[in-house]
Amino acid sequence: MKLLFDENLSPRLVAGLSDVFPESVHVRDAGLSRATDAAIWDYARSHGLTIVSKDSDFHQASFLWGSPPKVIWIRRGNCTTADIEEILRSSLSRILAFGADQVAAFLALS
């Protein structure tokens, strides 16, 4: 599973999680800094990426626009990049099952 980390998450997550989510990318490195949600959505869909964000906008977009792409919403207030990495690592089996589910479009983690 390849992830697209939104602007509200650190670009350091790409390297920090490369052992479990290889080929993931941050919006900044994809040339999408300050891009609209629709542009990020289209990029994720066309590149087979799952959007990871702390922004509820993508949660809402998953209902409006449907899947693909899939969306992982990190529902944690102020926290460190290490906290986000731990959430994703500790939820690896849930994330992989979510990725394999043909119907699921949205996964909330906290």
pLDDT under 50 segments (min length 5)? none
| Widest sheet, order of strands | 2-1-3-4-5
Gyration radius, to the nearest Å? 12 Å
How many structural domains does the protein architecture include? 1
Overall 3D shape: globular
> Strand fraction band?
15-25%
User: Termini distance?
Assistant: 20 Å
The major pleated sheet works out as: 5 strands, parallel
Count the helices. How many? 5
Query: What's the β-strand tally?
Result: 5
H/E element string?
EHEHEHEHHE
Average pLDDT score: 95
Helical content stands at 40-55%
Quaternary assembly: single chain
Structural category is alpha/beta
Q: Can you put this structure into words, describing what you see?
A:
This protein is of the alpha/beta class. It has one domain (2-109). It is built from 5 helices and 5 strands. A 5-stranded parallel β-sheet has the order 2-1-3-4-5, with helices on both faces. Strand 3, helix 3 (56-65) and strand 4 form a beta-alpha-beta unit. The longest helix has 11 residues, at 37-47. It is globular. The two termini are 20 Å apart. The model has no long low-confidence stretch (mean pLDDT 95).
